[in-house]
Specification:
The chain is mainly beta. Helix content is about 5%, strand content about 45%. A five-stranded mixed β-barrel has the order 1-2-3-5-4. β4 and β5 form a beta hairpin. The longest helix is centred in the middle third of the chain and has 5 residues.
């Protein structure tokens, strides 16, 4: 299994988790890394641009380490 995967960001949960959609269409939440600064305002800056989360799959639970 890959150490890191990229998933399409579709939202942020009330708890501050990043909501992502997999290539297969599954939607799930991923914890943000402690040093990752990302808010709802960042998500809505440019609604035409797709954002992708880099997810560390070796962490338990999976953790979002970057958003591009």
């Amino acid at each position: 299994m890959a150490k890191e995967i990229n998933q399409l960001v579709i939202g942020i949960s009330r708890e501050g988790d990043v909501i992502v959609k997999s290539a297969r269409g599954r939607i799930y939440s991923v914890k943000k890394a402690a040093d990752l600064k990302f808010s709802c305002e960042d998500l809505l800056k440019d609604t035409e641009k797709e954002l992708y989360a880099t997810i560390d799959t070796e962490a338990q639970p999976w953790e979002c380490t970057a958003i591009e």
